[in-house]
Write a structure and sequence with these properties.
With 410 residues, the chain is an alpha+beta fold. It has two domains: 278 residues, outer membrane lipoprotein receptor (LolB), chain A, CATH 2.50.20.10; 112 residues, no CATH class. The chain is built from eight helices and 21 strands. β9 and β10 form a beta hairpin. The protein starts with a strand and ends with a helix.
């Protein structure tokens, strides 16, 4: 098979490659760390080990175009997500508890345990199994299967629901909502290899080398493999492998390895069908007795636009911007924000029995990290987080020197 390479802003023969760029949503600091992982690093899988299929040769340019240009509108199947990031559990718990809301991110009601922004953050820790169904940009459903409990996110036209069975609580969004994020109802985080691969490929131009790395069988489908590697120094990601279905170009699996040689994320279809799901798949009836938080799409959009506008105004100032910003691009992008200095109110415990507590974001990072020049470092297998002495936080899938440079630490 031809093993073509794509680097910089062009593909084979100098043909320009300028994919769509995904806008980074302003989020809370711990949630921003998740965004770096999910959108900047991509999600992952261990690909099937059986005999690879014999497929016609494609160049890297053709395979990237096949993945980004896939016209498949309908699918359903099971997705396995395995995460081994080495993130402290306290950091994920704090993020899910609502520290992000304290830092000023927009989105759903942070007071509900059904809030997808925080609930789906659980995908970044441990193993998860999801059932997914998609039928065009207006109908999607994701069910997370857990021990003795479940979680559902569904969009059907202008109605979107998120429901947590463990607390019997729900978020209901009405109006022409998810047009802003049609691939992931009510959430910024990707929940399938298709979403992860597209977001990743759309954000990698100019900083990436892409080659065709053979073929594989994934979820009963014949697939090509893309090997994606950074051309920038300072990234903690060594390679991303993306399996692309030979028949229709749908990404079936995405695998990320860190520079220490370990596979840090694994997301893949274990079974998949490209037949249109039954219409009733996207029906949702709120369970009896559920506590429902109602949201209007136009109100959410206005709130988000207002916060984005305020953040843009703050960006013009030399100091005092507490919203999330991004320094650099590609593999060495660094997310930065100002953390609150005192106690922040968050939902208490696991949210099953209600109540609220408080946490000190800076204190938590300092207790989990180690002293370094310029502040405190939380180091993981792929993501590093630097809290400076003046309360700024810098996070990314990058080495400590990159964070220190972004923070202006000599």
């Amino acid at each position: 098979m031809t093993n073509e390479t794509v680097t910089g802003d062009g593909l084979d023969g100098g043909v320009p490659y300028r994919p769509r760029r995904r806008v980074l949503v302003r989020a809370g600091v711990p949630l921003a760390v998740a965004a770096v992982i999910a959108a900047g690093v991509g999600l992952v899988p261990a690909l099937a080990a059986d005999s690879p299929p014999d497929l016609p040769s494609l160049t890297a340019e053709q395979l990237v175009a096949k993945a980004l240009g896939s016209q498949t509108q309908a699918l359903s199947g099971t997705v396995s997500v395995t995460t081994d990031l080495g993130l402290p559990t306290q950091l994920l718990s704090g993020a899910a508890g609502g520290i992000g809301a304290a830092a000023g991110h927009g989105g759903q009601d942070a007071g509900s345990s059904a809030d997808p922004q925080t609930k789906l953050l659980g995908l970044l820790g441990g193993d998860r199994t999801l059932r997914v169904a998609v039928d065009g940009p207006l109908r999607q459903r994701v069910d997370i299967m857990e021990n003795m409990a479940g979680y559902t996110v569904v969009r059907n036209g202008d109605q979107s629901w998120a429901w947590d069975s463990s607390t019997n609580s729900a978020v209901h969004l009405t109006g022409a909502a998810g047009d802003r994020h049609p691939k992931a109802p009510l959430s910024e985080l990707p929940t399938t290899p298709q979403e992860a691969a597209r977001q990743f490929l759309a954000a990698s131009a100019g900083t990436t080398s892409v080659t065709v790395a053979g073929t594989a069988n994934v979820a009963g489908q014949k697939a090509y493999q893309l090997s994606v590697k950074p051309t920038q120094s300072g990234s903690t990601v060594a390679e991303v492998r993306i399996a692309v279905a030979a028949d229709n170009g749908v990404p079936l699996a995405v695998a990320v390895k860190s520079t220490d040689g370990s596979t840090v994320l694994d997301v893949r279809f274990t079974d998949v069908s490209f037949a249109a799901p039954a219409a009733k798949t996207f029906d949702f009836t709120v369970p009896k007795g559920a506590k429902v938080t109602e949201k209007k799409a136009d109100e959410v959009a206005k709130d988000s636009a207002a916060k984005d506008g305020a953040a843009a105004a703050d960006d013009a100032k030399a100091h005092g911007n507490e919203n999330v910003n991004v320094i650099g691009e590609g593999w060495t992008a660094v997310v930065t924000a100002q953390l609150p200095g005192g106690q922040v109110e968050v939902p208490k415990g696991d949210g099953k029995h209600g109540g609220r507590g408080s946490v000190n974001p800076q204190g938590m990072i300092k207790s989990l990290g180690k002293p370094v020049d310029g502040g405190t470092l939380i180091g993981t297998k792929v993501v590093n987080v630097l809290l400076t002495d003046d309360g700024r936080v810098f996070a990314g899938a990058v080495t400590l020197p990159v964070l220190q440079h972004a923070a202006g630490v000599n």
